[in-house]
Design brief:
With about 80 residues, the protein is mainly α. The protein is about 45% helix and about 0% strand.
Length: about 80
């Protein structure tokens, strides 16, 4: 079998209606299977309520440890 007869045979096989229908059915079934595997149902969207800002603290923040106003000498009894 030489190359020209091989090319002619491949052309006849590819142009046969059964091969074309089989290829189309294969591609469609593969696409459907791929869609089913990758499908994710989207759940109901939750409505996000804006958070209210916390009330400002009325008491002052504690002083740092190294500041002179916070230092106290030894407790006297």
């Amino acid at each position: 079998m030489d190359v020209t007869s091989l090319v002619g045979l491949c052309k006849e096989v590819v142009s046969d209606w059964r091969v074309i229908v089989s290829a189309v059915v294969f591609i469609m079934s593969t696409s459907l299977a791929n869609y089913v595997v990758r499908y994710r149902k989207k759940g109901p969207r939750l409505k996000i309520k804006p958070r209210s800002k916390p009330a400002a603290e009325s008491s002052p923040a504690p002083a740092q440890e190294g500041s002179p106003e916070n230092e106290q000498g030894p407790a006297e009894a």
